[in-house]
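User
Please review the sequence:
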Amino acid sequence: MKYYPLPSELFRFNRQRFMEQIPTGSLAIFHSNDLMPRSGDTFFPFRQNNDLYYLSGIEQEETVLLLFPGCTKSGFEEVLFIRKPNERLLRYEGEQLTPTKARRFSGIEKVLWLDEYEAILRELILLSERVYLNLDEHDRFHSPVLTRNQRMAQQLNAQYPAHQYQRSGPLVKRLRMVKSPAEVDAIQQAVNITGQAFTEVLKMLEPGVQEYEVEATITASFLQQRATGHAYDPIIASGANTCVLHYTNNNKPCREGELLLMDFGAEYAFYAADITRTIPVSGRFSERQRAVYDAVLKVQRESIKMLLPGTDLDEYHREVGRLMEAELLALGLIDSTDVKNQDPKQPAYKKYFMHGTSHHLGLDVHDPGLRYEPVQAGNVFTCEPAIYIPEEKIGIRLENNILVTEKGPIDLSARVPIEASEIEAWMNGAS
């Protein structure tokens, strides 16, 4: 790992909270992600299953975690299985996880080799009253590829059809929504790394620079600061590309007079940052660009104020829409007739701001959350209003990362330059 390991107390705390949510006598099973074939004899880089990492702190492939509160077999309430290294693994991949290291990272005392898993699972599952399965649930995404957790669930259903099976996903989702101080620290570190990379871009950008050169500057800065890499594919969009919401080709030149929209975030200790900034390629905003920029920034600042415990997310997004409507009227992009005749299901402002304003942030850049429940203290949200004007090649999105607290929202990205004048000062060597 490039990052400094998070304290094992975090993972102990997460397991304790999870096991308090399931009845005594329940067995919960968490598998690592698969190694995904790329081509020939190579694999895509491995990324651990986030729920398994959340409960164990282990990032190595071929790992299984069993949690069994009240297990009648002494010492088996928490069991971690890891891959047993052989000579070939050590030769080709180097140092592997050992039981001693796994105990130190996870805080789990009983760490066994994976070749013991089948026999122990059979004994424990027959001692259990119900089984909790982790099925990689997301209400806005369905993969046609079965995950390891899903395949193992099918096998268990076939082998032990008389058992009662439950979903661990809703329980872990609820826990992951509320970040502990150690998690907030990890997100803050990811944000700090991202902010430093942004200032490096401010110093190097000029007309003629390629989008991929900007991406390279960001990537280098991430790695130099112990980040694992990017938390998601970076969007480095200049000119007309600023109006393409998920543009990731990053292969066009940045031209004089255009804007550059950058949506990127570092991953540190598996936790994500998600920052967006839009800057002038030439170092100065035009009058029109500045007017749109200030409108977006105004909406963002008012939106952040509403991220309070108890806020209803649907009403929050409606209120952001009303704020955006006022700014678009002032910019002349819509008029009172557009507003009067708008379809309530597709308000007039949606022509220029068509996506949501906030999503949960954590181990996933779009972290799981219960969208129909009020905002809670400990949630971390993005706040990313935007205005896209394709006919003017102006797309401006500004995104900060916000911690919700009982005392009010805390902007974890407050130190990342965002004022138009501050950005111009950085770009012209006067910061």
Observations:
- The first strand starts at residue 26 and ends at 31.
